[in-house]
Predict the structure.
Amino acid sequence: MAKITAGVATSHVPAIGAAIDLGKTQDEYWAPLFRGYEFSKQWIRENPPDVVFLVYNDHASAFGMELIPTFAIGCGESFAPADEGWGRRPVPDVIGHPDLAWHVRQSLAEADFDLTIVNEMDVDHGLTVPLSLMFGQPDAWPCKVIPFAVNVVIYPPPSGQRCFNIGKAIRKAVESFDEDLNVQIWGTGGMSHQLQGPRAGLINKEFDNDYLDRLVTDPESLAAMPHVDYLREAGSEGVELVMWLIMRGALDDKVEVLHRFYHVPASNTAVGHLVLKNSA
């Protein structure tokens, strides 16, 4: 059967993608950030997944005000990088795993989670930047990827509890798939940041590091955190962190922390990163 073996949490700041694409990763400003991912790149080369189930949020590339799904699963064969206003990122197309994606969709429907099925869409920096951070700049991504888009842009986003629970349902769905697959689940976005208004540029290191601690040892308490706490403590875009709870819900109650990294700033955002391994 398929099995989720590990989880990755990482920020997906668009400026990180630009730094990679423009060859600035060793610049004084960016080098400390990219050093924080050296362990992860080596680890994933030594532990390659067959499929990455990648939880991210679209930034008005595939979805707009006319269509805003709360949860959308990419069931297509492939997904091209989106043009976010300055051309498509020079990265490979994402190759999907339709059989597993449709299986997850069916299983979650039976568990009373309704997912929007998307067979054609472009994927933006929310998905491609994490792939670049973990895999570098290959000619083709070394595994298949199932995009799982979550609305954390337009109010109301899903609750942390809903996200944590859907992670648990995803794990059950994956483990009921007949093919023998090594699956990783990634939660992306965050950490604390605000892009507009009087608090633009907000970074809350204390909140971020507490979140990293509790994501490992006490995710249930984070699942119970109301949206207003994210807004107050982590800024208007900090609610992206609920996507990390989908990843965490799909893992064992107790996990091994293989790598932890936190860095500020990257653009005007705090960057957090974890690599978590299931105990069995």
Summary: The domain at 3-278 is CATH 3.40.830.10 (Protocatechuate 4,5-dioxygenase; Chain B).
